[in-house]
Amino acid sequence: MTVASDASCVALDGVTLLRGTTTVFDRLSLTLGERRIGLIGDNGAGKSSLFRLLCGLDAPQSGTVHVYGRDVRRERGALPALVGLMFQNPDDQIIYPTVVEELAFGLTARGTARREARERARDFLGARGLSEWADRPVGSLSQGQRQRVCLLALLISAPRLLLLDEPYASLDLPGQSLLAAELAAAAQQLVVSTHLLDHVRDFERVIWLDAGRVRADGHGPGVCAAYEADVRGRLAERPPLPY
Ligand SMILES: Nc1ncnc2c1ncn2[C@@H]1O[C@H](COP(=O)(O)OP(=O)(O)OP(=O)(O)O)[C@@H](O)[C@H]1O
């Protein structure tokens, strides 16, 4: 069995991706099989681009992307059940005017009837003490609250692979702790990109992306420490500010 056809993991094989005139990835190959994977690296390293490839939002110029044995470009109908992305910016993700509609969409996309989807969305919110959010216009929620809606939309639709792009970025400390608990309880495979390394430090695997290349890949504590040491080194060499 090739890695691409392995139904138990996610695989990029020889992927080259251009965005605009930038070569983001040049023949990148990766196999993602662990339940908890962290993705770290500087701004512009390619974390969001990797997520866009994995959920079929972008197609590579060459190479292949397979999610649990399915070719992301050729088998799009299978994707909603397999992979879901929580966008870095909630406004890129949220389509519907109210919270209940947004959550229900994740279910109708997988074939649930509209009415049942809305009922389940209300129950889902109720189970989290968020019933009063159901009919709130999404625009009336704060950035961090909209980010929570994005996560809930992903969790209710329950794809096998959850991709979370800087999910902690807008959250207050209680929100971060709540999110960490939701993620710890999630049965699915998770890939979490973050600049807040403590949220992935204990993961069984962390990948450090550096200008589209894998700079380090291994147990979370070691990879996070290597990245932090590299950042410290770069800061120490930086010339002083001119004022
Ligand atoms: N829409 C776009 N058009 C052209 N180039 C883009 C576009 N989006 C991203 N890029 C470029 O692709 C590269 C990777 O960007 P990407 O957003 O994947 O990085 P990232 O690691 O997610 O960064 P951040 O930590 O800032 O979110 C960068 O060089 C970026 O400038």
TrEMBL record:
* GO MF term (any one): ATPase-coupled transmembrane transporter activity
All residue ranges annotated as the ABC transporter domain in the record: 10-236
Asked if the keyword Cell membrane belongs to this entry, the reply reads yes
The UniProt entry's GO CC annotations, sorted and at most eight, read:
ATP-binding cassette (ABC) transporter complex
- UniProtKB keywords: ATP-binding, Cell inner membrane, Cell membrane, Membrane, Nucleotide-binding, Transport
Pfam families recorded for this chain? ABC_tran (PF00005)
Would you identify the family this protein belongs to, as annotated? Answer: Belongs to the ABC transporter superfamily.
Which PANTHER family did the record assign?
ENERGY-COUPLING FACTOR TRANSPORTER ATP-BINDING PROTEIN ECFA1 (PTHR43553:SF24), HEAVY METAL TRANSPORTER (PTHR43553)
Q: What is this protein called?
A: Biotin transport system ATP-binding protein
Name its species. Answer: Chitinasiproducens palmae
